[in-house]
Amino acid sequence: MTRIVQIAPAIGPGTGVAGVAYQLEREFVASGATVERFTAVEAGRRRRRTPRSAIGMRLRHGADVAWFSTVGTARARRFLAERPDAVSICHNDVMAGDVYVNHGLLTAAMRSRGHYALRMLRNPLHLFTAVRDRIRYRGRTHRAIVALSDQEARLLVDTYGRVDIPIRVIANGVDLERFRPASEAERARARASIGLPGDSLVAVFIGHEFERKGLPIVIDALPQAPGVALLVVGGTPDQIRHSRGRSERLGVADRVHFVGPQPDPVPFLQAADVFVLPSAYESYGLVIMEALASGVPVVSTSVGVAPEVIEDGVNGFIVPPDARVVGQRLRELTGQDLRGWRQRARERAAGHSWRAAADRYLALVHELQASKKEEP
């Protein structure tokens, strides 16, 4: 009997770490494994009222990370000690578990954006996380590390210099039934519901960190791509206000449509002709796979999974973080028959199901189970 414990701050449908753990849990159970959760709730973290201000949200997030990394670690270790036959997979924060899934390298993300020392010093949570992760990667907390892409595996070693724990590359999956190419009728309905022009090339940007993910670059590219409308999903009120001001200064505000955070990206991918993400750093970039699975070609910098799944000029473009180049690529797609691009995008995503991802995790789980039995 295969017994797995997944450790994460939260596990549930949606995006991010919680969604990844949820999808893996479903596939593990479907394969016949017994799966348990250890989340902040199981660790005893009491639910609290959601703060109303952005500062309150940041303070709440910092407190949650620190608590789950410390108190959560102690309680997770007790939880696992009671289940010696289980193989544990940790997704974030807790310093325990047989396998640690690297969902992002904070220090790499900060360095990619410049002013590294300032970014680290002005946020105590960054300093705490940097120390915690150095202990994690340079020590023996876990028995294996999972990197989500070949590039992230190399970056892990470049960042920490020496990682004695074995590193395995296991890419995230994508829900190929939920994310599928839209029909022409579905595309027209999606655009009408959002209020997008029917005759423009619609580029969609999806992300909550506008600066790191490159929204300013996309907006700066629009003057060079006059036939392109930009749909922006995500962001805080402050980020949206600043970005709208930028588009107004460039004279492209009438072509930029902000819809704010949305629980479901599917309607916005259905409305799009191209997905654009000139990001400074991605540990994986699941939304890239979601776009490809939706039959939407991708214009992205060479981050995360992008260089492994985007074939330049075939199902998208790999670009530098340069507004001029991004504008050129968007302009190239304007007026083209995109049916071939959509087909090639979908074909590239077809091999990245959650079933395939879970099978690779299960192979690692069985390997660790066998080594546990051999231990004295």
From TrEMBL:
Domain named Glycosyltransferase subfamily 4-like N-terminal: residues: 16-178
InterPro entries (alphabetical): Glyco_trans_1, Glyco_trans_4-like_N
MF terms (GO), sorted A to Z: glycosyltransferase activity
Pfam families, per database record: Glyco_transf_4, Glycos_transf_1
CDD domains on file: GT4_PimA-like (cd03801)
Domain (Glycosyl transferase family): residue spans on this chain: 188-325
Keywords assigned: Glycosyltransferase, Transferase
Domain of life: Bacteria
PANTHER family: D-INOSITOL 3-PHOSPHATE GLYCOSYLTRANSFERASE, GLYCOSYLTRANSFERASE
Name this polypeptide is given: UDP-glucose:(Heptosyl)LPS alpha-1,3-glucosyltransferase
Species: Agromyces ramosus
